[in-house]
Amino acid sequence: MQPVQWQGVYPAATTQFRADESIDLEATARHLDAMIRAGVHGIILLGSVGENTALDYAEKLEFLRAMKDAIGGRVPVLSGVAEITTRGACRFAADCEKIGLDGLMVLPAMIYKADRREAMAHFRSVAQSTALPIMVYNNPPAYYVDITLDMFLELADERNFVAIKESSGDVRRVTDLINTVGHRYILFSGVDDLVLESVLLGSQGWVSGLVNAFPDENRKLWDLAMAGQWAEARQLYRWYTPLLHLDTHIKLVQYIKLCMAEVGLGSETTRAPRLTIEGEERDRVLKVIRHAIATRPKL
Question: Which domains does the chain possess?
Fold first, then answer.
């Protein structure tokens, strides 16, 4: 396997739907193009924000083929792997490799809450089913499986585990991971409203949700952090943080898509059981979004 150079901003991209909930390939491709032109460094399709589990198997493969063609090699393209069974995850990983993707972001098996031994077996099985490089997605608040420091140390013998999306919500994990496994893995921050703290501590990438709606500001914040311009980065981060908080809610998909609709970058349509937010909740989220738009900094 060739050395992997993943770093920078990798959107957890949304999947665009028409009003009847059918996949809108053209709209999704336009949105990906807008983010790439804004300077993102890679794309992750069919993650949690991409509503992976709301698509059936054949739809996922058709979608990945179409988006790979639309991106045309401009940036690395990864797919989320979020299947119910380990066997299904291995099958999907192998199919992603046949499509020609650049890598995978692998989640624990969905629905069943695996213990340590089961989670390790799941991740090892997926790694051994493909030659593609893998980002391991650790998000215990959402998926109730915590990949701990000792587990990452043990998994280091699988060569195609190359990166970690750290979404535990505990920014101390960044330092603890580096102290435990050195620089064996590329570390990505997976929590939008902890990104500046994570970069300061050593994260090399950011899997972002709000970049779907604010790609220019997202890239600017990343560039300031990489340049060590902390005062300017803090100022931009303080403007951005109320929006970034929307990434940490169970309805992050609806919130991010509403942001996209408000800035003209896509539709807020989701696939049921997710429904468009309404009432007091909608008013509250729109207040955050519209205040951010009204006070948007000049870049």
Answer: 8-294 (3.20.20.70)
